[in-house]
């Protein structure tokens, strides 16, 4: 046999020659007439002669050469033992090093729980308007699985999947199991509906919160709860690889003593408690992921103080206006007592969320926290009402996205994953979505997503959730800062600094606001040049606070002074205006306009900011801005300059003050992310035309107003200019010269017209004297 070359330690080495009577045989899977690699052959060491390497072979170091050297007593058995993974100095434990033959988990079937008797729960007196929680919901899902050949059913398409879904029989949950979550009184109430008459059942439907009953409702409800129990137990005990429970009525809205939102008994929490009690430490830590479009208020309340149950809900919140309503579904409800940090709400601000938003939430929050929690069992409260096509949900999650999320969750708890149906009211959407989930459970890779870019609202929501959850999880950043006491808000400090600088440079001083309702909110926020009351052109600047840019510490979330910059470009505008001999009033509109003490938590800008700004603008107009008159002829030119959302007050003043626009020479506005404000009035018919002819509105290139290139924006938005910059400070810097020219043209043109008027008046007076 030819010798094989082996490269060891950068040198060419040769393995020792095998004796002619070598017993190497062809190994399974090798081509006819070949032998397996001699290094891997089982008889290799037993057949090596106890002698030095053959002549011509390179000399090997003793620690590298598995062959016994001359004078050594090392045997092949001793060598194998020395090279074993389980020897005393190995990094591998005996359990880790011992591999199980085959693929024991992959060979297990995926479970399916479905029972036709759950369809018997229906309206006692149906109307023409079909109820969203239609009994056919589970029928369509089951038939979709059969049509795809995943179920061994007479109606299933052939050929079947190699390992079809294994049926899990639903059973009736016992009262003892249900009262782990609900009160005995609630169980008795639902049971009592078996014996009620039609009139009483209709009365319950009309008086209860989004729920209906008939005489078979109780049996369907305990079958649904029992199906969830058996599904979760089968997964937790490894009777199946994983499973899906196609059950109804749903459960995640049902509370301790209340049936609501189509839900009677809370199936998933009941199943989780039974698993914990029956299996003990084998199933102590349970994660419940709820992707139903509605918040699972009942699940949250069931485990709000439980450290062993992690509840994560991704849902539409709409500031508490979306069902079930109230503040409980917001991001700051994190659990209490021992369960603090075990409740995670990801509340979408509105409907319309899609694949990119859900994937972003999973990648940034759900999976990092789930891996840190390290559950023994994962249960999905799988409502498919966030799917595209569902009218109640109004979102756009695709079947592929549901498959992707399922695939990620399968990496937890050694793959012990149970999926229990909740909501979803479009037959096609829930069928295709449930099919995508089931295929992934059975081992198919999820379909590829076409759109994975999250929306800005999703990014904002997820980042806020990360910040709120950071104190409870090592994987969440940035960590919040904690201080015993909070000082002044930075915008007040900056405004005081600006006032001092403007006074030192231009002798500008604060104007006092004496109106009680707004005096505190805008104290030291209005600063004017000394000549603001003179008969010279006046530029009134309403602006958002200066943009602050900084780099936070990646872990502590602290901002150090040397890593913070303030962009205050409008001071260049003030300098130019005063150098021209004009007057200026600089009005700063804080995002948080009240004088309440700082809480140290993130706060959005005040909702009443536009109203308060309009009230301030009206006060300033009446007391400081309104043109002076001489001989009934106005001699003051006024330019309004709006920066950011602060322009809303100016726009509202133009709209609500009759004919005020006739006293204004021009409007300049800068718009980045804030909406473009329309200036129009039903009582001032010429206002929109005037605004279009006398305005200059710079808009960021990413703004939605440029979304349709074939459609011109309405003239109500003014004369729009697309900027090349996206931030207000950059826009202010880039367009200074254009704004200066606009102001100059407006003021000097007015001055020329006034001069011509004066000449005409003088000629008229001379003619009268001659007469």
From TrEMBL:
<keyword id="KW-0678">Repressor</keyword>
<dbReference type="InterPro" id="IPR017321">
    <property type="entry name" value="Hist_deAcase_II_yeast"/>
</dbReference>
<keyword id="KW-0539">Nucleus</keyword>
<dbReference type="GO" id="GO:0000118">
    <property type="term" value="C:histone deacetylase complex"/>
</dbReference>
<comment type="similarity">
    <text>Belongs to the histone deacetylase family. HD type 2 subfamily.</text>
</comment>
<feature type="compositionally biased region" description="Low complexity">
    <location>
        <begin position="15"/>
        <end position="24"/>
    </location>
</feature>
<dbReference type="InterPro" id="IPR023801">
    <property type="entry name" value="His_deacetylse_dom"/>
</dbReference>
<feature type="domain" description="Arb2-like">
    <location>
        <begin position="489"/>
        <end position="749"/>
    </location>
</feature>
<dbReference type="GO" id="GO:0040029">
    <property type="term" value="P:epigenetic regulation of gene expression"/>
</dbReference>
<feature type="region of interest" description="Disordered">
    <location>
        <begin position="1"/>
        <end position="79"/>
    </location>
</feature>
<keyword id="KW-0805">Transcription regulation</keyword>
<keyword id="KW-0156">Chromatin regulator</keyword>
<feature type="region of interest" description="Disordered">
    <location>
        <begin position="743"/>
        <end position="771"/>
    </location>
</feature>
<dbReference type="Pfam" id="PF09757">
    <property type="entry name" value="Arb2-like"/>
</dbReference>
<dbReference type="InterPro" id="IPR000286">
    <property type="entry name" value="HDACs"/>
</dbReference>
<dbReference type="Pfam" id="PF00850">
    <property type="entry name" value="Hist_deacetyl"/>
</dbReference>
<dbReference type="InterPro" id="IPR023696">
    <property type="entry name" value="Ureohydrolase_dom_sf"/>
</dbReference>
<comment type="function">
    <text>Responsible for the deacetylation of lysine residues on the N-terminal part of the core histones (H2A, H2B, H3 and H4). Histone deacetylation gives a tag for epigenetic repression and plays an important role in transcriptional regulation, cell cycle progression and developmental events.</text>
</comment>
<dbReference type="InterPro" id="IPR037138">
    <property type="entry name" value="His_deacetylse_dom_sf"/>
</dbReference>
<keyword id="KW-0804">Transcription</keyword>
<keyword id="KW-0378">Hydrolase</keyword>
<dbReference type="GO" id="GO:0031078">
    <property type="term" value="F:histone H3K14 deacetylase activity, hydrolytic mechanism"/>
</dbReference>
<feature type="domain" description="Histone deacetylase">
    <location>
        <begin position="131"/>
        <end position="441"/>
    </location>
</feature>
<protein>
    <recommendedName>
        <fullName>Histone deacetylase</fullName>
        <ecNumber>3.5.1.98</ecNumber>
    </recommendedName>
</protein>
<feature type="compositionally biased region" description="Acidic residues">
    <location>
        <begin position="750"/>
        <end position="764"/>
    </location>
</feature>
<dbReference type="InterPro" id="IPR019154">
    <property type="entry name" value="Arb2-like_domain"/>
</dbReference>
<feature type="compositionally biased region" description="Polar residues">
    <location>
        <begin position="60"/>
        <end position="77"/>
    </location>
</feature>
């Amino acid at each position: 046999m030819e010798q094989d070359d082996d490269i060891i330690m950068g040198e060419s080495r040769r393995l020792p020659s095998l004796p002619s009577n070598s017993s190497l045989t062809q190994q399974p899977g090798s081509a006819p007439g070949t032998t397996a690699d001699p290094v891997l052959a089982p008889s290799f060491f037993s057949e090596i002669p106890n002698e030095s390497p053959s002549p011509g072979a390179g000399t090997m170091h003793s620690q590298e050469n598995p062959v016994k050297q001359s004078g050594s007593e090392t045997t092949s058995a001793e060598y194998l033992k020395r090279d074993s993974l389980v020897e005393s100095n190995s990094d591998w434990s005996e359990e880790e090093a011992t591999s199980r033959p085959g693929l024991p988990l992959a060979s297990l079937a995926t479970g399916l729980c479905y029972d036709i008797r759950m369809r018997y729960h229906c309206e006692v007196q149906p109307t023409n308007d079909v109820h969203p929680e239609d009994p056919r919901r589970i029928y369509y899902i089951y038939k979709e699985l059969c049509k795809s050949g995943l179920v061994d059913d007479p109606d299933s398409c052939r050929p079947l999947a190699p390992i079809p879904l294994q049926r899990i029989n639903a059973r009736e949950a016992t009262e003892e199991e249900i009262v782990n979550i609900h009160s005995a009184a609630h169980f008795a109430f639902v049971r009592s509906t078996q014996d009620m008459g039609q009139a009483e059942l209709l009365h319950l439907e009309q008086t209860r919160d989004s729920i209906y009953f008939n005489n078979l409702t109780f049996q369907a409800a305990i079958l649904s709860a029992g199906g969830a129990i058996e599904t979760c137990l089968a997964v937790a005990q490894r009777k199946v690889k994983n499973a899906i429970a196609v059950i109804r009525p749903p459960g995640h809205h049902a509370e301790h003593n209340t049936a609501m939102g189509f839900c009677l008994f809370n199936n998933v929490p009941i199943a989780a408690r039974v698993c914990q009690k029956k299996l003990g430490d084998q199933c102590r830590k349970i994660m419940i992921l709820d992707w139903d479009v509605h918040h699972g208020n009942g699940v949250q309340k069931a485990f709000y103080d439980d450290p062993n149950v992690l509840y994560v809900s991704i849902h539409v919140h709409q500031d508490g206006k979306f069902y079930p309503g109230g503040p409980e579904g917001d991001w700051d409800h994190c659990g209490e007592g021992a369960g603090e940090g075990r409740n995670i709400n990801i509340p979408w601000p509105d409907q319309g969320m899609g694949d990119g938003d859900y994937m972003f939430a999973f990648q940034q929050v759900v999976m990092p926290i789930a891996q840190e929690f390290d559950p023994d069992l994962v249960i999905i409260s799988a409502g498919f009402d966030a799917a595209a096509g569902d009218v109640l949900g109004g979102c756009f999650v695709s079947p592929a996205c549901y498959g992707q999320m399922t695939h990620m969750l399968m990496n937890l708890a050694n793959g012990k994953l149970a999926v229990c149906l909740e909501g979803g009211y479009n037959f096609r959407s829930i069928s295709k979505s449930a099919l995508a989930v089931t295929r992934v459970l059975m081992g198919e890779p999820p379909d590829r997503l076409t759109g994975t870019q999250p929306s800005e609202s999703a990014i904002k929501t997820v980042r806020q959730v990360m910040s709120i959850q950071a104190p409870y999880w090592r994987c969440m950043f940035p960590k919040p800062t904690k201080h015993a006491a909070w000082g002044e808000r930075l915008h007040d400090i900056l405004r005081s600094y600006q006032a001092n600088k403007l006074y030192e440079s231009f002798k500008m001083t604060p104007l006092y606001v004496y109106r009680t309702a707004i005096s505190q909110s805008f104290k030291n926020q209005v600063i004017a040049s000394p000549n603001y009351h003179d008969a010279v052109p006046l530029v009134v600047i309403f602006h958002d606070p200066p943009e602050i840019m900084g780099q936070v510490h990646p872990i502590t979330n602290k901002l150090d002074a040397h890593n913070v910059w303030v962009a205050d470009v409008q001071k260049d505008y003030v300098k130019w205006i005063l150098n021209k001999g004009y007057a200026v009033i600089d009005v700063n509109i804080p995002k948080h306009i009240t004088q309440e003490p700082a809480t140290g938590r993130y706060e959005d800008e005040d909702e009443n900011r536009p109203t308060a700004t309009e009230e301030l603008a009206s006060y300033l107009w009446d007391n400081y801005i309104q043109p002076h008159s001489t001989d009934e002829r106005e001699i003051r030119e006024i330019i309004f300059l709006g920066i950011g959302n602060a322009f809303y007050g100016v726009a509202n003043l133009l709209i609500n003050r009759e004919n005020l626009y006739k006293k204004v020479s021009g409007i300049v506005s800068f718009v980045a992310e804030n909406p473009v404000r329309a200036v129009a009035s039903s009582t001032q018919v010429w206002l929109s035309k005037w605004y279009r002819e006398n305005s200059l509105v710079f808009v960021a290139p990413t703004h939605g107003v440029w979304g349709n290139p074939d459609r011109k924006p309405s003239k109500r938005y003014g004369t729009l200019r697309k900027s090349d910059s996206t931030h207000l400070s950059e826009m202010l810097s880039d367009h200074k010269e254009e704004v200066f020219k606009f102001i100059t043209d407006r003021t000097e043109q007015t001055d020329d017209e006034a001069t011509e008027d004066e000449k005409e008046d003088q000629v008229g007076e001379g003619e009268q004297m001659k007469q």
